Amino acid sequence: MTTPHERVFAAVAAIPAGCVASYGAIAAQAGLPGRARWVGRVLAAAPAEAALPWHRVLRADGHLAFAPGSAAFEAQRRRLEAEGVELVRGRVPRAHFARRQDLDRWLWAPRDAAETAAAPRADAARKPRRK
DNA sequence: AGAGTGACTGCAG
DNA sequence: ACTGCAGCCACTC
Length: 131
What we know:
- The chain is mainly alpha-helical.
- It has helices at about 5-15, 25-30, 35-45, 70-80, 100-105; strands at about 20, 55-60.
- The radius of gyration is 15 Å and the shape is globular.
- The protein has a two-stranded parallel ribbon with strand order 1-2.
- It has five helices and two strands.
- The N and C termini lie far apart (about 55 Å).
- This is Methylated-DNA--protein-cysteine methyltransferase-related protein.
- Pfam families: DNA_binding_1 (PF01035).
- One of its GO terms (biological process) is methylation.
């Protein structure tokens, strides 16, 4: 059967191009709520052959998990920008976060709908923060 | 066995 | 917005 490890891979692979998801969301999607750190560990150990869109996974607040300026940070930022996802004031706008159902649709599971937990408002049509 | 360490998170100050 | 802190849990000394 599917191992937690495989479910994490599947969840990451299910993130649509141009979208992102948090470590916690991936963990929850893989049936491991509360284990965001473990997801980070799995991705760090993931072989390049897996060709996972690891760059679409970031912190819940929109910040990349790597230290700003580090090689890994820049690499991830480049990959995101290549898909049209740009950092605004150092973070990815909530509007880019994939929604629960977007991931479910790719995975299979109607599963529930009960826990529509983090349903981020998908607009973000706000004024340009003065200056 | 026990302490330290994160590709994390949410809450508190 | 930033800093700390408590939970979190696998893994490494």
